[in-house]
Specification:
Helix 7 links the parallel strand 9 and strand 10 (234-237). The protein has helices at residues 11-28, 42-48, 66-90, 103-112, 128-133, 189-205, 220-226, 243-249, 259-268, 284-294, 308-319, 322-333, 340-352, and strands at residues 2-6, 31-36, 53-55, 94-97, 117-121, 139-142, 154-156, 178-182, 210-214, 234-237, 252-255, 272-274, 298-300. A 7-stranded parallel beta sheet has the order 3-2-1-4-5-6-7, with helices on both faces. Strands 10-9-8-11-12-13 form a 6-stranded parallel beta sheet, with helices on both faces. It is built from 13 helices and 13 strands. The chain has 2 domains: 2-159 and 338-359, Glycogen Phosphorylase B (Rossmann fold), CATH 3.40.50; 164-333, Glycogen Phosphorylase B (Rossmann fold, 3-Layer(aba) Sandwich), CATH 3.40.50.2000. By secondary structure, it is an alpha/beta fold. 43% of the residues lie in helices and 15% in strands.
């Protein structure tokens, strides 16, 4: 079996794609090629994982200047042509689009060549690349039931996340309440600033609270200085290497609501306060967050309304209501998909006409 995974740009695209590739290799003996762009994180992560990577030249169309959109429109036909050449050379049995810049051109080329195609869509509302090809792909693997309506055929598989998120168990009630704050690998200025403003009041309303805060590189010193008087009550990191371990220690999270974060929260069964990134393409973070809020797993606040008073009162109320935290945890865990990588790989194998027994 030969499979191409196309797309990337951010870890939210590339990390699940690598999990799918690993499952294809393990269960079906697949030979895998990645197609990405020169600007994406795939240039670091994919070769490090041992997979070959080829590049097409294409940029963004959403939330960019008119000049950038014009340049991308000009590059797009060549990107489809280059992707088609790569398909001819590799001769895949299936092409999996994971979203991001390279996904659209590669999936277009595969559709034209009548190669089976599988779109992976982790957000409630599909990104531009998947919306463009939605009517033409063979099937789609989605995270949310409401996403299925965008595709001719879709299965709810969830998003692949590290197994450690599923294995942390229920946090015991030991008296100390722990709040985990993060805004993605680069941090989130609005969340960092809100925490700096509110921590004295939060400490008064929630005596004994412990804070674990991932700030990102840029804002680390400012947040560290603001927390200085907390002493052992706060741990401040530029980047948390072992995020499952941080999840396991936390009673409540404050974070963004990208697809991977939402999937990790479901896997870990963690109550969350979501602050969606307001400039995310198609406002997909807000829609993701609201899906968990409707399920009773999270509270959502817009970044523009993230004032200190609201944050203090909400955090204090949640940390003081163990029964509600338990209900939120159960609701989050009900949305988890522990076999996501396996199920997505199985969909790809079926499209390729390969059974697990055929790969041995």
């Amino acid at each position: 079996m030969r499979a191409i995974l196309a797309g990337g740009g951010t870890g939210g695209h590339v990390i699940p794609a690598l999990a799918i590739a690993n499952e294809l290799k393990k269960s079906y003996g697949a030979e895998v090629l990645f197609i990405g762009t020169a600007r994406g994180i795939e240039n670091r992560l994919v070769p490090a994982a041992g997979y070959p990577l080829q590049l097409v030249r294409v940029g963004a169309l959403k939330n960019v200047s008119l000049m950038t959109r014009a340049r991308t429109a000009f590059d797009l036909p060549r990107a489809v042509w280059d992707a088609g050449r790569m398909l001819n050379e590799f001769a895949p049995d299936v092409v999996i689009g994971v979203g991001g810049y390279a996904s659209g051109p590669t999936m277009m080329a595969a559709v034209v060549k009548h190669i089976p195609t599988l779109a992976f869509e982790p957000n409630v509302v599909p990104g531009l690349a998947n919306r463009v090809v939605a009517r033409f792909v063979s099937a789609a693997a989605v995270h949310f039931e409401e996403t299925a309506k965008y595709f001719r055929y879709a299965e709810v598989t969830g998003v692949p996340v590290r197994q450690a998120f599923f294995e942390m168990g229920v946090r015991p009630r030991d008296g100390a309440r722990t709040l985990l704050v993060f805004g993605g690998s680069q941090g989130a200025h609005a969340i960092n600033e809100a925490m700096i403003r509110c921590w004295p009041a939060l400490l008064r309303q929630t005596p004994g609270i412990h804070i674990i805060h991932q700030t990102g590189e840029r804002h680390h010193n400012d947040v560290l200085a603001a927390y200085d008087k907390l002493g052992d009550a706060a741990e401040v990191f530029k980047f948390i290497e072992d995020m499952p371990a941080a999840f396991a220690r936390a009673d409540l999270l404050i974070c963004r609501s990208g697809a991977s974060t939402v999937a990790e929260i479901a896997a870990g069964g963690k109550p969350a306060i979501f602050v969606p990134f307001p400039r995310a393409a198609d406002d997909h973070q807000r829609v993701n967050a609201e899906a968990l809020e409707r399920a009773g797993a999270a509270v959502v606040v817009e970044e523009s309304k993230l004032d200190g008073v609201w944050l203090v009162e909400t955090v204090a109320a949640l940390l003081g209501d163990q029964a509600r935290l338990q209900r939120m945890s159960a609701a989050a865990r009900s949305l988890a998909h522990p076999n996501a990588a396996r199920d997505i790989a199985a969909m790809a194998a079926r499209l390729a006409g390969v059974g697990e027994s055929d790969s041995r």
